[in-house]
Amino acid sequence: MHFEDYIEIRPGVRGGKPCFKGTRITVYDVLEYLAGGMTEAELLGDFPVLTPHHISAARAFSDTSESRVPRGSRR
Predict the structure, then answer these.
(1) What is the DSSP string of 35-75?
(2) Domains of the chain and any CATH numbers
(3) What is the pTM of this model?
């Protein structure tokens, strides 16, 4: 799985922060919730548009040295 399949950066959306495609939910939002102790199940319950693949993509994104995806990338 490639995080680019799930994450995009669009100027003008959430300040250009990386978001999950088709949403305004940022990768940083998800990572902060997880770091704060929220479980994956709780997160998915609060954000039903997300799947376990989105969570994995957020983790993969945070593990990259650049943590960048091309602007305007679309699925």
Answers:
(1) HTT--HHHHHHH-TT--HHHHHHHHHHHHSSS----BT---
(2) 3-63 (1.10.10.10)
(3) 0.81
